[in-house]
Amino acid sequence: MRAFTRIYGGHPLHAVGLLLSFALVGYVVTLAGPQSLWNSDIWWKSILVWFFGSVLLHDAVLFPLYSLADRLITGIPRRTLAVSPVNFVRVPALGTGLTFLMFFPGILSQGAESYRAATGSTQEPFLGRWLALTAALFIVSAIAYFIRLILVRSRA
To answer: pTM for the complete prediction?
Structure first.
């Protein structure tokens, strides 16, 4: 096991999970057919283009940005703060990011005609609701941080 971990660089369960993920993707592509990944009429609406675009956007833009933000938060000297704010920033940011990722077509009003035809409503409230959710997550996290800070200082 130690030799495998030294060569692979991670736990053997990580390798098993990775292999299972690749097997699942292979099964889905086999089931759906490789032709379903490419839209020959409108190339930019292809699953393949969106997949590689999202990988490039994440790896080239988003990862450096949130790594920098995390370094700035974790770079605060521990002795200056009684309670670390790291998780009080990470949790609402993660909630906000995942909510945006799930609902970004509605938030950015993409497919407005299809949405109106399917529901009879507009996508107008999506952006405001997402911003309200973002504000609520960060406000609740700030309140929790200050409660924690008060509790830690009262013990000392």
So the answer is: 0.67
Domain count, the chain: 3
Q: What is the mean pLDDT of residues 94-120?
A: 91
- Cα separation of the two ends of the chain: 46
Closest by CA position to 129, among listed 107, 146, 145: 107
* Both structure tokens of 15: 């390798």
Are residues 107 and 127 in contact, defined by beta-carbon separation less than 8 angstroms?
yes
CA distance 76 to 36: 49
Q: Which domain holds residue 95?
A: 77-156
Helices within the chain (DSSP H only): 2-8, 12-32, 47-57, 63-74, 86-107, 112-119, 124-155
Q: If you search the block for the tokens 């190339």, which residue do you land on?
A: 43
